[in-house]
Amino acid sequence: MNKKNKIKIVVNGRLLTVNLKYSLKNLIEKLKTPINKVAIELNEEIIDKKKLNKIFLKNKDKIEIVHFIGGG
Amino acid sequence: MNLDTLKIAKKKFKSRLIVGTGKYRNMIECSKAIKISGAEIVTVAVRRVNISDRSKPLLMDYIDPKKIMYLPNTAGCFNSKDALRTLRLAREIGDWKIVKLEVLGDKKNLFPDMIETLKSTEVLTKEGFKVMVYCNDDPLMCKRLENAGASAIMPLAAPIGSGLGIQNKTNIKILRQQTKVPLIIDAGIGQASDAVQAMEMGCDAVLINTAIAKAKNPFQMAEAMKYAVISGRKSFLSGRIMPNLQGSPSTSNKGII
Fold this sequence. Notes:
The structure holds two protein chains of two kinds. Chain A is mainly β. Chain A has one helix at 24-30; strands at 6-11, 14-19, 39-42, 45-46, 62-70. Chain A has a single domain, classed as Ubiquitin-like (UB roll), CATH 3.10.20.30. In chain A, strands 2-1-5-3-4 form a five-stranded mixed beta sheet, with no helix packed on it. In chain A, a hairpin with a 2-residue loop joins strand 1 (6-11) and strand 2 (14-19). The longest helix of chain A has 7 residues, at 24-30. The relative contact order of chain A is 0.28. By secondary structure, chain B is an alpha/beta fold. Chain B is 37% helix and 17% strand. The interface between A and B is medium-sized, with 26 and 36 residues.
């Protein structure tokens, strides 16, 4: 495996290694995340879910994917 | 026809009971209790998706946000920055504008940090949010929140999850007199009579989580709270008799033998 073609990202606190030119859409599809039930943050900035295929991840990017859970 | 509707940020609701969705044993129990309670608004929290275990049940699969309004809450936030981040994310999930702000300041008693709460309310209302604010029962701070544009004032009856009931009735009565937006008792309800009291004092609604979720029989308690809120509201609207230290016979003396 050629390390030059890989980048490291952190998704919900977990380190993942993905290919170069990996888009947020690729990530969401890989994780099988139900897109209409989540919100996505890239480096603490909220991402417009309609633009996921235009956003390509960089090394050390931090992604947060959140949803609603039970709470008071 | 029942014209006594609760209006929050121009939205109308028939039920004056708002329930939390935390602390239940499972999602099935949670959704069943909510159904029994008749609540039309439920509070929800924003947390990370579990990316390693996709089999975990999702709240939206059990409680349909099209049928019951989700009220995103900032539970667990201890400063303005985290609370704002949480609610901006919540809005992004599905265009939620009515939100519940809760900025805690004390890990032990879960009392709200009113300085951070006020700051957050100001920012959120400017961003177009309709903010229902968890707060303490201090009339001055509550007035400031209202002036900052809060859509509902939600004072605690007692610490969150304590079940102690309304501790400072005088302040709640003062709040009732001064508050023009919905006044909702948010925390500390323990049993049905606490909810009745809140409604009889003229509060517009109550928010209950632990008292239902942690009751031995949550379904029966959900039903008890439903009727407590209805009962207290009707009692408030009916115009009670003046309390009197003297007795007054229920039966007329006319025709007595």
